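Appendix B. Chain record.
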Amino acid sequence: MPDSISVSDFVAETNEDFKAPTTSSFTTRMPECRSTVIALEEVSSKRFLIAS
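Structure tokens predicted for this chain:
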């Protein structure tokens, strides 16, 4: 599983993609973004189950 990406890195990558889409590396970081979202969803769903 790819490493996670921090919020600040995600924002920086998104900003770079917006400013210069032809030279952006955003698409190469997508696996890290997906990995982070999956990890956050797992934590969130476990917290919801515990709180229920």
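Further analysis of this model is presented in Appendix C.
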